[in-house]
Write a structure and sequence with these properties.
With 99 residues, the chain is mainly α. The protein has a domain at 3-70. Helix content is 73%, strand content 0%. The protein contains four helices and no strands. The chain has helices at residues 3-33, 37-67, 82-87, 95-98. α1 packs antiparallel against α2. 10% of the residues are buried.
Length: 99
Amino acid sequence: MNIAEQTRFKIMLLAHKEELQELEQAQLDQTTVGMDATQGQQMAQGTQSRRTQELARIDAALQRIANGSYGRCVQCNEDIDMRRLETNPSITHCSQCTK
């Protein structure tokens, strides 16, 4: 993967990270404003867990960009198909290793 492609994916990842962080803040604001307390808490916990996992995947992808291993499968070290990365820039495995 060349530098231009890495930069493009880094920008995509950073934008998605910012979006998730903004959603997290909006969720916190909404939880304090209304909703049935129990229902709101359960929904917030599930959403927060998924958001935290996605943020961790994004941070890991950004680290792989920094160390030069981004775009390579973490299991077999083969290139991950560019279309796969475009669909999910934080993906860690090629299609073969995902099966």
